[in-house]
Design a protein that fits this description.
about 200 residues; mainly alpha; single chain
Length: about 200
């Protein structure tokens, strides 16, 4: 009996971790998509602006100025290309997308294994261990606010259909967020001793 409880708790913790990682990857991918789109837009617009500006200014007093501006814009285009390579935007997008899919699989498989208590989960724990190593490399150093937000979102999805779920650290509901002192979910812990209908604090 204790073994089954321990197995269930372990699988729930794995599900919580994978849902947290999935949310973080989604946010990271959104940021990378914005950066990628901005770089692509600037890469297309820069030479277009140069061409449009050079043609009407040819043979006019503005030609030297426009040529100087075109050189500056060409330099910016080169910097953008180097920046894109340095940031490895496309490579990170591919890596994060793959890792997010793996965490989604882990989260779903955790529920399956919780329901099927007789199924051997040894292979699954090995898979989780490998993915944990990848996650540590990719998202170990994330903003504290994003980490707490991701954990709150994982609590909401931890047990499908259960809206009574609470943060194990502060006992607050992830559905009622008020920025507070909890180091795990970032919520404001409910005040002790106050119940519905009480008038005394």
């Amino acid at each position: 009996m204790n073994t089954e409880i321990s197995r269930r708790e372990k699988l729930l913790q794995i599900r919580a971790n994978s849902l947290t990682a999935e949310h973080v990857y989604s946010e990271k991918l959104r940021t990378l998509a914005r950066v990628s789109n901005a770089l692509l837009l600037l890469s297309v617009l820069t030479p277009l602006i140069i061409i449009i500006a050079l043609y009407p200014s040819k043979g006019t007093a503005f030609e030297p100025l426009v040529q100087w501006v075109s050189y500056a814009l060409s330099g910016i285009l080169l910097v953008l290309a180097i920046t894109s390579l340095a940031l490895q935007v496309e490579l990170k997008k591919e890596s994060y997308s793959s890792a997010r899919s793996s965490n989604t699989f882990i989260a779903n498989e955790s529920l399956e294994l919780i329901d099927n208590t007789g199924q051997d989960a040894t292979w699954f724990f090995r898979y989780v261990s490998n993915q944990d190593a990848i996650d540590q490399k990719n998202i170990a150093k994330i903003d504290d606010q994003l980490r707490k937000e991701a954990y709150r979102e994982s609590l909401k999805r931890l047990v499908p259909g259960d809206s009574s779920i609470k943060c194990p650290a502060c006992n607050s509901s992830p559905y009622q967020f008020s920025a507070g002192s909890c180091q795990l979910c970032g919520n404001e812990p409910p005040q002790q001793g106050i119940r519905h209908g009480d008038t005394n604090i």
